[in-house]
Amino acid sequence: MRLVVILLAGFLFAGCTWFKSKPPKGNPVYPDTANAPVTTPKKLIVTADTAQVGKVVQVNVRGRFAIVNFPVGGLPAIERQMNVYRNGLKVGEVRISGPQSDDNTVGDIITGEALVGDEVRAN
After folding, report:
1. Which of 57, 59, 102, 103 has the fewest CB atoms below 10 angstroms from its CB?
2. Model-level pTM?
3. What tens digit of pLDDT does each residue of 62-99 get?
4. What helix, strand, coil percent values describe the chain, rounded to 5?
5. pLDDT tens readout for residues 7-44
């Protein structure tokens, strides 16, 4: 009797391993596309933004210059020409002329205009 139980258990386990589940056909991400290749996502490369971006903090309309504030360590070089943006639209150009003090510098307004709060970016 023990032999019959052992043989029956052996056949039962052997039968379960015989019928393995088959993987589904097609793309597992998009099951409706039967033969579409599975693509791996591309590696993204993230780099820090090195663009010099400042903000106009004061404007002298008669003298046609603006005082621009830049982040610490981000002051542009003297004679650097930069664009002035308001709400994402270019409204003027400034040329950094100095003097520089802490994180502020002076820029001469070349074309267009500049108002307090405008963004100054490198060309």
Report:
1. 102
2. 0.59
3. 999 999 999 888 889 999 999 999 999 999 999 999 88
4. 15, 35, 50
5. 777 766 665 555 566 665 655 555 555 555 666 677 87
What domains, with CATH codes, occur in the chain?
A: 53-122 (2.40.10.170)
Q: How far is CA 50 from CA 6, 38, 95, 113, 121, in A?
A: 74, 36, 19, 25, 11
Half-sphere exposure of 104 (CA within 13 A, CB side): 9
C-alpha 30/C-alpha 13 separation (Å) is 35
5: CB partners within 8 A, 6+ apart? none
Q: Please report where in the chains the tokens 């409204």 appear, as a residue.
A: 91
